[in-house]
Design goal:
AB_hydrolase_fold, 5 domains, PHB depolymerase family esterase, alpha+beta, globular, 779 residues, signal, Plant_Biomass_Hydrol_Est
Length: 779
Amino acid sequence: MRQAPRLRPPGCSRLTLLFLSLSTFTFGENVVLKNGIVYRGSVDQDNTIVFIDDGLKRVVVRDSKIARKDPDTTFGHWEIFKLEQPLVLHGGVMPKEALAIKTTAWNEQGRRQFEYRSAKSNQPISMEQAIYELGPYKVRLRGVDGFWQDGRLSTKQIPREIVLSILAKVDSTNLNERRRVASFLIQAEWYNDAKRELDNLIRDFPDDASLRETIGNARTVVAQLESAQIKADLDVRRKAQQYHEVMNRLKTFPTKDVAADVLVDVRDQVRRDEAQVAADEGLAKAFRSLSERISSDAKKTWKAPVNEMLRALAEAPEAVRDRFVAWQKAKDDPAIKDDAQFALAVSGYLVGADAAVTSLEMATSLWKLRDQLHTYLSTSEAGERTAALDQLQTIPLPERPGQTVATLRLDLLTRLAIRMPPPLDTESDKKTKPGEPTLHRVREDENLAPTEYSVLLPPEYHPLRSYPAVVALHDGRGPSAAIDWWSAEATRRGYIVIAPEYRLPDQGDNYTYSTSEHAAVELALRDARRRYAIDGDRVFLGGQLRGGDMAWDYGLAHPDLFAGVAVISGLPFKYAFRYQSHAKLVPLYVGLGDLAPAGPEIVFQNLLKPLIAKTYDVTYVEYYRRGLEDLPEEATAVFDWMDCHRREPFPKEFDAVTARESDDRFYGVVVREFFEGRSTAPEVVEPFGKNLKPATIKMSSSHLSNLIKIQTNGVKRLDVWVSPKLIDFNRKIEVRINKDSFIKPVAEPNIEPFLEDLRLRGDRQQIFWLKASWISPGA
């Protein structure tokens, strides 16, 4: 029978800064990146490559990404508890790689069952693992009946009740050990548990007068740390647009032992929020009053729009209040009559205050335009779209000096599309609730195996707001597994999670690099953008294990879709090595264990390190003594990273390569056909893509010359979609592909290509107004 572990007091008792002033030597540094992310640990540098080591993992970035380094005299001063864990096997050799890892839950002795395989053998190796060193930031473990040396895990990956049960094994009569437990809990940021332990110290050692004073001071410090933690979480929730949650928690904010300046700040925030609520209610009341002053005939016409606007002001005022600015500025001007003021309000709500009109007739036209646009974007019936298109091209518009009728119509439709709820919002609203994963089948999917995906909405979701999103690629176990990995932080930070089922029914668990898998992800994202209020410039791709393999492949193949790609324990093969230059277009975050097969050697040394050296936006995180596993502790860091990134939807120039039929779109340049030999099926591509001969695309634009220039090789046919963000549509436009030029004196009044592209892709942040098609003279 194995002996249970017990805590072993250290040879020399050491108190933390809570009770004593410790030595002031620097144990590490705070490395502050230019994007605001902070990493803590010891710092090493290899020319331009910077390594930040915190004992659990090392983070690798380029020195040019760093804003500053600050000394950190507290990091590493952890309260460590040693556990005596009797071993059965004392010697052996650590494996060089570990995959197919399976574990059981930790028991109260700090042990678990652990199984792994090597890349060279399918025979699983099983053992019991035990924690022998417990710290507030990381734990260290070893094999009991099999050899595993110096394993490391984040303490957050050990259930709190297990950690507390281990700490409860200290000698309850030893004051020094009990103080160390309290310090541990504070360092772990488990402040409620820390306060409870401090109270227990006073109860269990009532005769120590100096202890009572020390504990009183310590409790004050803990209360202040806890209040700072709560406030930081409220800041995250506010950014996540969870306004009711923030207000409720501000009103119940703890006050005992909290610093006065913090309480003042909290009370000021409550007052500001309450004042804003009152202002929004006042705005709604004033608008309701204005709507009552228009003519009785107009009241009937405007009843539904007025109700929609009042509902928006009640449910999501922060999303729409700026649309009323033009009216607000004019409402005290006696020269502007009620009808004109009403027109400013209802038109500004649709197209923005800067495009609001004073003509009630023109405001009516804008609402008709919005209704027909919604019909076109939401219907699956071609006949209904044709009828809506006719209306969209004939509804009269206000005149705007210096702008043609064609560009004015395109501009207004773009403004309407950006501000209206998603076209399929009412359809989704019937069954999707925040916090509950919902399965969708892609609308109008004509494939034999219809595409499905799960979606998870954040708390207080509203279709008039705009949300970041994560396209989460599962690890072979289905969309629910992907939702599980991302859900906690996505819920806290206000992200929508989209988890596509990219496998075919008979495919099995492996990722095959196929066009079918790519189509499933793109169809799911397009469908989700039509249903939900997704900010297209804040969509990220992420995946773990097999999903990480696909994230490498799909993310580099479709850089224009994402603000960043997060790969956890995924390996790059086939196309990824030939597409690595796309890391200049889409930021990468890669987390991997140092025991992952071919991980540090191939992924870091051969691929990522050169990209980091080129100043590409690449972050590499390598965990010590970890194999090919899903690294759940990385979720918080990944979201920190995502919060700092946005997509550039219209780069002024880019270089791209493509060698697969599905890898066909780059910021509006769409490949329609390759020359022979430039597109290669995945089943014949070598592991590192050495047999690929990708087609190339180089785009540059000039606003001064009103020119888009494309150089391509290996492409037989392509389309070029032109954005008003790059080109002035009121001037002569030139699109030059190789040596062929397409010149348009002024944009023609044909809105159908624009509408169809918007309907199919659903990307309301990447809108194009004009399409030019090209066929190579050598075709």
